[in-house]
Amino acid sequence: MTWTLHNLDSAAARRAFEIASEYADAALLNHSVRSYAFGAEYARRHGLSYDAELFYVSALLHDLGLTAPFDSHTLPFEEAGGHVARLFTAGLGWDAARRARAEEVIVLHMRDDVTAAEDVESHLLQVGTSADVSGLRVPDFDPAFRTTLLTAYPRLGFGPAFLSLVEDQAARKPDCAAAAYVAGGAAKRIAANPLDA
Questions:
Q1: pTM, whole model, 2 decimals?
Q2: Which SUPFAM superfamilies does this chain map to (predicted)?
């Protein structure tokens, strides 16, 4: 494995983990780390080059729009999370273009499929979150990788908890991507995730 179990060794990555730990509960935090790990491992297996720090920071912050302090009554949670990332990375001294990229990666993870050729970091976050939430492509990952990852970052009832969060978003924001996700059978896919078997 080429990713580290805890985090990327950079000041930005360490701070992203600290902030995510302060606002997300353990199940949501572990999901964020696993999303990064699945994406990074997918990139390694497919020979994809990407900005690891940008991807890690985006992955760690991508669901903060689901937490009470950052939940918007008008914006979809991924857009709220994108704004959190933009503010957070401004504090890190990232320039405007890099801040916008962090926001974009987070917003696009809930949009239609983005190919690696179009935007590799957004593609990796889609791969990572889809694997962790609904089990998409999970059988393609080495069993030893999955075991190591789940031992270090256990699920802690993540599936049902996440379903409750997105169902709440769908009920309050019926035009958001979460509403389409719920209407498209999210409950069934989350329940069938082989990571929870």
A1: 0.95
A2: HD-domain/PDEase-like (SSF109604)
